[in-house]
Amino acid sequence: xxxxxxxxxxxxxxxxxxxxxxxxxxxxxxxxxxxxxxxxxxxxxxxxxxxxxxxxxxxxxxxxxxxxxxxxxxxxxxxxxxxxxxxxxxxxxxxxxxxxxxxxxxxxxxxxxxxxxxxxxxxxxxxxxxxxxxxxxxxxxxxxxxxxxxxxxxxxxxxxxxxxxxxxxxxxxxxxxxxxxxxxxxxxxxxxxxxxxxxxxxxxxxxxxxxxxxxxxxxxxxxxxxxxxxxxxxxxxxxxxxxxxxxxxxxxxxxxxxxxxxxxxxxxxxxxxxxx
Amino acid sequence: xxxxxxxxxxxxxxxxxxxxxxxxxxxxxxxxxxxxxxxxxxxxxxxxxxxxxxxxxxxxxxxxxxxxxxxxxxxxxxxxxxxxxxxxxxxxxxxxxxxxxxxxxxxxxxxxxxxxxxxxxxxxxxxxxxxxxxxxxxxxxxxxxxxxxxxxxxxxxxxxxxxxxxxxxxxxxxxxxxxxxxxxxxxxxxxxxxxxxxxxxxxxxxxxxxxxxxxxxxxxxxxxxxxxxxxxxxxxxxxxxxxxxxxxxxxxxxxxxxxxxxxxxxxxxxxxxxxxxxxxxxxxxxxxxxxxxxxxxxxxxxxxxxxxxxxxxxxxxxxxxxxxxxxx
Lengths: 276, 328
Prior knowledge:
The complex is a heterodimer. Chain A is mostly helical. Chain A is built from 16 helices and no strands. Chain A folds into two domains: 4-153, no CATH class; 183-265. The longest helix of chain A is centred in the C-terminal third of the chain and has 17 residues, at 183-199. Chain A is elongated, with a radius of gyration of 22 Å. By secondary structure, chain B is an alpha/beta fold. Chain B has one domain: Metal-dependent hydrolases (TIM Barrel), CATH 3.20.20. Chain B has 13 helices and ten strands. In chain B, strand 7 (209-213), helix 11 (222-232) and strand 8 form a beta-alpha-beta unit. The N and C termini of chain B lie far apart (43 Å). Mean pLDDT of chain B is 89; it is low at 1-11 and 297-315. Chains A and B meet through helix 3 and helix 7 of A and helix 3, helix 4 and strand 10 of B.
């Protein structure tokens, strides 16, 4: 398997002129290089081969730079070039970038978390990023970024997922969304659903994706409500949730909706297509 | 509207014409000086509706003096971070100028630290100048940090946005220009702000850009602005709102354009004064790409959802019906 840095270097070289690439490689204060980089590279979307894309997802599962621009990758590359042997100095340098980052820099920094050394150093920073209300920053943390699911504790992870619902993110694009489902989160989401119902507001059907594996007698009441009072999307969500459950009464309930069972079985309905 | 108007004039025009921006429908505006940090989201919405497609937020005094360097850093960070995002939600491109304002230059111990901090920000994307800097009380400390920041502008190649003082405006404006020239700045890269009838001629004659702040009671009114446009034309002249935490108007630029239209200023001149000149002046920073905002507006269907998600196209915020008593 190819090492991630050599793949990213190859992509960056293919997307910059030799002059610009050597500018990136030159030694200068990190702050300046990081800030000035887009002036040198421009901001064009990256051209990436299928092989390169595959090599990246093999090196870091869940990670992708397919949607990145050349300045975005250039900044990530600067971070990867840092000497990380002195942990404290390494942390201070990168943390300083966070402290004065403009919007594009924040996106580059947070989306590069999986590429940084000493994973344990960035947990607080990542949790702080989730508190941001800047949409692109949240997306940089949530989408195509395996760092949160691999490093955050359960409380911080649950915050991330709730924040995603509150800010209308695409739940299916969150790396590790199903793997890190947990009972606490299922219960908080149930409470959230009750609040939305009380307010007369619509529910994101993907909420039930996180409830399904934990259906018990309490959560089952919500599932029944989806079937009884919900629209077609709600019933679809309830059916998909039951598929992930071992709770017997739920399994029995689903048999009353053979047409939903059938579309799921035929792979014509999934969490990714539920709104389609 | 008292002693300077004759009775006939008053009789012939309504005292306060109702706001109508019909005459400027479809026109785009660039407000090169507005402190959005101090404004509400309603203002962003209203500005977008009135045709404002881009703006510049100069770093300034927040009303409450800062006592530590971190307050400055967080403020500058917000100008390139949070405020930039807030603006983008309404389809308005947000730029800023970064600098130490004249009032706070008087806290010298802090000012020294700010000077060390500035290079961390002036090269950021979307930073289109050093500003707003200049004189307030015209103290020696103000002059010192004004000069130091002019040097920073030279070094970074950025335009300068000069705040001219309220008190002793004429003298302060002249002094600001003298010092800028003394430091070897090209006047074509310097925007002298808050001009009035008394300062404009000198500013233009010496090759600087003359910005006018349309701000009720303390700065320019837009009727006076129309007269200035008639007398001086549109070359190197621009208007802004400088809307902030005071009684001010974030729609000052489109309203002034509307009044110019009613009073017979040509569309070409209106475009230069309320849009194009600001871009020409501040694009010398290399940080303005007109394509980023020239085509916004037009057809944004607020009900359109993106990939089935409730994220609205173009990052637009959903609208609330302000005329309804029901809030849902």
